[in-house]
Amino acid sequence: MSEKPAEYPALPEAVKGGSFFRHMAFFGPGAIIACVTIGSGETVFASRGGAVFGYAIAWVFIMSAIFKGVQVYSGARFMTLTGRHPLESWAELPGPRAWFVWLLAFMSIVWMPFWLGGGLPKMLGDFTNWIVGIHAAEGLAEGEIDRNFLLASRLWATGFIVVGLTFTWFQSYRIFEKVQTGIVALLLFCMLVAAAFSNPDLLALIRGTFVPTKPEFEPWLMEKYPKDFLGKFPWVEVVLYIGVIGGGTQDYFGYLGLLRAKLWGMLGRSKDISAPGPGAIGESAENLERGRRWLLPAKFDVGISFTAVLIFTACFLILGAVYLHAKEKVPTGTELLTMQAGYLVQADHPAMVRMLLGFIYKTGIFFAFLGTIWGAYELYTWTMRECLVAAMPRLRGVSIKKFRLATMLWCGIGGLVIIWTFTKDPKVIVTPAALIGSSLTCGLWCFAILWSDKVHVPKALRMGVLLRALIVVAGLALTVVPAIGIYQYVQKQLADETKQVESDVDGGADEARAAGEASVDE
């Protein structure tokens, strides 16, 4: 006998209607996405984008935040309506079973240690050095490293990984999140005020937002920062921004996993996360209307989250353009977070005000990054769980605690290896992760969710024309632009390797020639 079509749970009062503040009860998992991306995304790379390109790059950041918001909502919408993670649907795509799931899982999971190793902890390690007064030596030759500074930074980063792992295992994130949110909110409030009083060029900002221009490096970048920009492709820099702003699939798969605890829509049929989603969905007029109403929490959670990302991105972009681009300064190397202190601390401020604002900046950034590291472990745990369960359904009954342990081992050990192996600055380390795991995979998600919507959602509840159009545009932008960046990145790496081989050959030839001349002389 066929299974009875599933019915959506009764609507709670908050879903039936109410004020904006009543709907704030829905804002939960999205807060973690917003907090996790504040660290590297807005603070570092929105500032860097403003410093490198000025207001002309605004369209990239706006596009990234909007398109990724649409992307994440499409996943939350599907999950609310069907009770299934999109990955479970994609396991049924034509071809070998779960081939697409394995592809996205690999391109997302493999980069996790890069973000939680040489990326975020290393950035925070460099920043902590600055707070305690440890500075890198000046006047070093190109390629030379201050070993003492590097050692201190690695030790700090190792400590932050240990703290993140410890707190994740004991699951006290909710307590820390409240403290972190308060401190970060104070920091961002100060940054918003600073942006408002920085006298930004609003006309240039509007033009940079609505008139996309081809990114170009200005001559002063090659002169002052040859290591970062000489011979490099602007599109690689741009795709890096697209990847870090708002997060990537390594975050979004986990975000959707967290929705299981919210019990929205069809997810509310069972509190057991190991229970599979329903087969058929009842198509009575009453049930379909309940399904539409259940989309309100997803709209609210994703909407608030990415609106916050968009606002704070614009804020740091403006400050980067006003205070750094105009002075031809770029956050790079070990100074990815230190230059931004100038947004708050001005030379003409009284000493007491400078001390207070400096404390707010240092404390806010420190806890924002530490919270990002901590929150990422929880998100990545759910990403690991959802990817592996979709690919291997027999793992559905495995407890989340075991997936958490596997994630901690993968990200913790992998992160430590990267920290103690790579000497390059964090921006260089996370670039391939951003190009692939936080950009290209997002575009592939958009095209796949269109298939899922057509195949697994009742016709009356499928996406409207406008949402489908936005998904298509987002998919094209998040696939084509990253593909260009990846091609140019690989092209540059191959050119560098060829140049290195030629240099080694020439060096060997010179040594052989010198040895031959010495032999003749003898």
Provide an overview of this structure.
The chain is an all-alpha fold. It has one domain (33-497): Amino acid/polyamine transporter I, CATH 1.20.1740. It has helices spanning 13-16, 20-23, 29-53, 58-82, 86-90, 99-109, 112-132, 147-170, 173-196, 202-210, 219-224, 226-229, 234-244, 249-258, 285-293, 295-325, 351-391, 400-421, 426-456, 465-521. The radius of gyration is 25 Å and the shape is globular. The model has no long low-confidence stretch (mean pLDDT 86).
Structural class computed from helices and strand pairing: mainly alpha
Q: Would you tell me which CATH topology applies? A: Amino acid/polyamine transporter I
Helix run count: 20
> What's the structural domain tally?
1
Oligomer: single chain
CATH architectural designation: Up-down Bundle
How large a portion of the residues is in β-strands, by DSSP E? under 5%
Shape: globular
CATH class: Mainly Alpha
Instruction: Tell me, rounded to a whole number, the average pLDDT.
Output: 86
Largest sheet: none
Rg to the nearest angstrom?
A: 25 Å
What percentage of residues falls in helices of 4 or more residues? over 70%
The ordered string of helix (H) and strand (E) elements is: HHHHHHHHHHHHHHHHHHHH
Beginning-to-end CA distance, first to last residue = 98 Å
